[in-house]
Write a structure and sequence with these properties.
With 89 residues, the protein is mostly beta strands. The protein has one domain (3-88): Jelly Rolls (Sandwich), CATH 2.60.120. It has one helix and eight strands; from the N terminus they run αββββββββ. It has one helix at 3-12, and strands at residues 17-23, 28-32, 37-44, 47-51, 54-58, 63-66, 72-76, 81-88. The protein has a four-stranded antiparallel sheet, with helices on one face. β4 and β5 form a beta hairpin.
């Protein structure tokens, strides 16, 4: 799946808010949650998402989602990470 495919799928699934974001390398976000469903696509770099006791690392071309209200952590790789983020309220 390409970033363009991902964006098209977001719209089809009702993710009407799309953001292109670059996160500095080494950024760590402790346990938190969002008031929206989030679907993310990694364009560059890497992101490790922690859900419960599971940590999964995503690299370019991979995507995943986190349901609204689901507590999770985020840890970004050494270099900048570029993402496409869809939000569904």
């Amino acid at each position: 799946m390409t970033a363009d495919d991902f964006i098209a799928q977001l719209a089809a699934d009702g993710y009407l808010e799309v953001e292109h974001k670059t996160v500095p390398g080494g950024t760590v976000l402790g346990l938190h949650q969002h008031a929206w469903d989030a679907r993310l696509y990694v364009v560059q770099g890497e992101l490790t998402c922690g859900l419960d006791d599971t940590r999964t690392t995503y690299t370019p071309g991979q995507h995943f989602e986190v349901a609204r209200g689901r507590e999770h952590t985020e840890r970004y790789g050494a270099g900048a990470t570029r993402l496409v983020i869809g939000r569904r309220h």
